[in-house]
Specification:
single chain; 273 residues; alpha/beta; 2-enoyl-CoA Hydratase, Chain A, domain 1; six-stranded mixed beta sheet; globular
């Protein structure tokens, strides 16, 4: 447990908090070699941002992953809970997924994502919604929703078109084709791409600069610019609802089975939709 300026952070199983520089809080996702999220880590990452927002000791945040991955998607036990006929769990995941996006958008402190490796799922949502994103050249960015058999719903519809344009967003979200750091920078999906061994240093440099800048000016700039995302909220709400509906479909059951059996999915191509 850590207390800072009257804010108490719980003991997290899958998140590590430290202070690498003055007024810079670093949040490191740490859950196994690829930092795949289970429900608890997802929930903890969701609930963390309002605490950071209230913590007057924090002027900037670094979000990164431990080891060689940022966060390589969701733990498939979590996906199984949604695909199986468990309405309560599916509803909890819908609520958490929605609040994760809302809480990051509404967190007044600037967030710098240090994308040090593979990133997908909720980790990808947090990275793309960060205010500055630093990707390693080897960082592998993939939104794999449609391969699982569900709509790209956890963040992408609200922000990818703003970052890289509609043409690129539709292509990568519908095909699930991965991007690596340099291409992600080229199309504008991330702020910048650096050598693998420079990601953390660059993130710290930028976070430190932001942390020592005029706090109100930086936060109000973020607030105003994030009104683009607030205006797009109905787009996000629709995508989340369609993802959750999709979790009940034969496509999601086949997508999950294909992943667990390490094969290509065989979807029924004769859809009534």
């Amino acid at each position: 447990m850590m207390t800072s300026k009257g804010v108490t952070y719980p003991e997290y199983e899958g998140l590590k908090l430290d202070w690498p520089a003055e007024r810079v809080l670093r949040v490191t996702m740490a859950r196994g070699k690829m930092n795949a999220m289970d429900y608890q880590q997802h929930n903890d990452l969701t609930e963390l941002w309002p605490l950071i927002d209230r913590d007057r000791a924090v002027n900037a945040v670094i979000l990164t992953g431990e080891g060689r991955a940022f966060s390589a998607g969701g733990d498939f036990s979590m996906v199984q809970g949604m695909v199986n006929d468990d309405f309560d769990f599916r509803a909890k995941c819908w609520k958490d997924g929605t609040r994760l996006v809302r809480n990051i958008i509404d967190c007044s402190k600037p967030i710098v994502a240090a994308i040090n490796g593979a990133v997908a799922g909720a980790g990808l949502a947090a990275a793309m919604l960060s205010d500055v994103s630093i990707a390693a050249k080897s960082a592998k960015i993939v939104d794999g929703h449609t391969r699982l058999g569900v709509a790209a719903g956890d963040h992408a519809a609200i922000i990818w078109p703003l970052l890289c344009g509609m043409a690129k967003a539709k292509y990568y979200l519908m095909t699930c084709e991965p991007l690596y750091g340099e291409e992600a920078e080229r199309i504008g999906l991330v702020t910048m791409c650096v050598e693998d061994d420079q990601v953390q240093a660059k993130a710290l440099e930028i976070a430190s600069r932001l942390a020592l800048s005029a706090p109100a000016a930086v936060r109000w700039t973020k607030y105003a610019m994030n009104n683009w995302l607030r205006m797009a909220w109905p787009i996000f709400d629709t995508s989340m609802a369609l993802e959750m509906i999709g979790m009940t479909s034969p496509e999601a059951r086949e997508g999950l089975a294909a992943h667990l059996e390490r094969r290509e999915p065989r979807f029924n191509l004769d859809s009534p939709l």
